[in-house]
Amino acid sequence: MEKKKPIRKCVGCGESRNKNELYRIIRTSDGEILLDKTGRMNGRGAYVCQDVKCIEKARKNKSLSKSFSMNVPDEIYDKLIERFSENG
Question: Where in the numbering of this chain does the YlxR domain appear (predicted)?
Answer without folding.
Answer: 8-81
